[in-house]
Amino acid sequence: MATLNLTESRIRDLPLKSGIWRDEQVKGLLVVCHATTKTYAVQGDVRRNGRHIRTVRVKIDRVDRIGLREARSRARAIMSQIQSGVDPTAGPKESGITLLQALDEHLQEKPLRDATVVSYRYNIEHYLGRYKNRAVADLSRSEVRDIYQHLRSAKGQPTATGVMRTLRAVINTALRLDETLTSNPVTFLRLPTPKSRHVDELDVAEWWEKTEALSPIRRDLHRAMLLTGARRASILNVKRKDVDLARGVLIFNHMKTGGRMLFPMGTFLRNMIAQRLEDDLPFNNPWLWPSPASGKGCTTEPKERKRGLPSPHEYRHHARTMFIAAGVPYAESALLLGQRLPGASGGYVHAEHLVEHLRPHAQALENRIVAVRTSTLRLPATTEERDAA
């Protein structure tokens, strides 16, 4: 932190991204040079009874909005508070719900996946830790904009966007609880929309050959991901008890939309899973995709990028496209992918009551995939063939 006898011209000449410059004349006055703006701020140590409480920094305003003389005047007033033992960033207790309280309320409003809860808490406590005990009412648009710009330059655009979306959702919850709040300052930011994922067309015959080179468990896992189009968490968390061979149903308990899903297995998938259960029986492992090397006991990382195989989410893209190519109607293909149908009437559709209705459509996808595989590869033996043998 360099010290400089600040003047208007010297401040104009300070390069962007050059960091923090301290004023020689007024104790605590700073000029902070961000990536796109310069701001006046005050920094000082709050002490009470000779004991250091905390170091605080208070933004005054942007350099292009006020002059140096006014900035020095405000800095002296704020430093007077700090030297008197007052923390100007604390905010009055009666100012309403704090950010951390709003986060707790938000996480209790509806059931969320464990990963979502961890992500929300990490964003607030790690990236917004210095603000978590601040009242939501004290967060201004300019302060939120500065937080966003700092995160974008220090952590990158994806992280900055994710933190701001978390903050927006938490403040929306605070708005419902605290009637003194009038608006959400995050809504005034222009957050970029996620880019659509580009997925190359899948050569099924070539893909089949590549999966044949995998270990039996990972081979069957990759084929199951394409034949079901299931989400990563759904397919990886299937246990042996979730396979109902008698009904020809694969049960997904980890669903993004909540509840569980009964997926009607086609002939090939059913035989493949039956053989998988039989082969893995000596392992005495409760998971459908066991992995002794995993601390959880099951496969947790199914990607095979080095072999040129799709990711779990890319398999969903391929399955959705192939459903259309196989002539499966939109509603049925959406239900098979574990998606909720749009509109008010979509909430009245219960996919678990439509297992047999959906089975021919799951079979249509399977038929399309199996039909174009390499002709030299043999289907797993059917139940009748194994009995005859």
Automatic annotation (TrEMBL):
Q: Which InterPro entries match?
A: CB, DNA_brk_join_enz, Integrase-like_cat_sf, Integrase_catalytic, Integrase_DNA-bd_sf, Integrase_recombinase_N, Phage_Integrase
What are the UniProt keywords, alphabetically? Answer: DNA integration, DNA recombination, DNA-binding
From the UniProt entry, list the residue stretches annotated as the region Disordered.
292-312
Q: Does the keyword DNA-binding apply?
A: yes
Domain Tyr recombinase, residue spans? 197-363
Q: Where is the Core-binding (CB) domain?
A: 94-175
Q: Which domain of life is it from?
A: Bacteria
Q: Does the keyword rRNA processing apply?
A: no
Q: Which family does it belong to?
A: Belongs to the 'phage' integrase family.
Its name, as the record gives it, is: Tyrosine-type recombinase/integrase
**Gene source species:** Aureimonas populi
